[in-house]
Amino acid sequence: QVHVMESGGGLVQPGGSLRLSCEASGRLFSMYGMGWYRQAPGKQRERELIASITKSGSANYADSVKGRFTISRDNAKSTVYLQMNSLKPEDTAVYYCNALEIGTMDQAWGQGTQVTVSS
To answer: By C-alpha distance, which of 17, 35, 10 is closest to 99?
Structure first.
């Protein structure tokens, strides 16, 4: 079973950048599709998928972050990244990493990392 842990959140001014990391341990990382979700304040039941990357490296983005965020993976380091540029106050949220292997439906969530965009 895979386990994942996020890092890299923090406070940043509007227009700034942050890079989130998600390190996986356990089963073979390269077999997993990876995704970044976020949950905005006051929206306890809405976890939005904002970026995903397949095991072959194909990326997809939500319209809200397209052109500003970039997801990437380093299989040698068992890590997926989310580079966030041109950050806006509405990007403020807890960001979660997800790992999913379609074949076995093995899935894991991280504990989340807070990103706050404010002046």
So the answer is: 35
* β 10-12/18-25 pair status: unpaired
In this prediction, residue 26 has a pLDDT band, given cuts at 50, 70 and 90, of confident
The identity of residue 116, as a single letter, is T
In this prediction, residue 102 carries a pLDDT of 87
Q: Strand ranges (DSSP E) for 2-117?
A: 3-7, 10-12, 18-25, 33-39, 48-53, 59-61, 69-74, 79-84, 93-101, 106-109, 113-117
How many other C-beta atoms are found inside a 10 Å radius of the C-beta of residue 31?
15
φ, ψ for residue 35 (rounded to 5)?
-140, 150
Instruction: For residues 78-105, give the mean pLDDT.
Output: 95
Closest CA to 21 of 32, 4, 8: 8
**From the CB of residue 27, how many other CB atoms can be counted at a distance below 10 Å?**
17
Specify which residues 109 forms β-bridges with.
Answer: 98
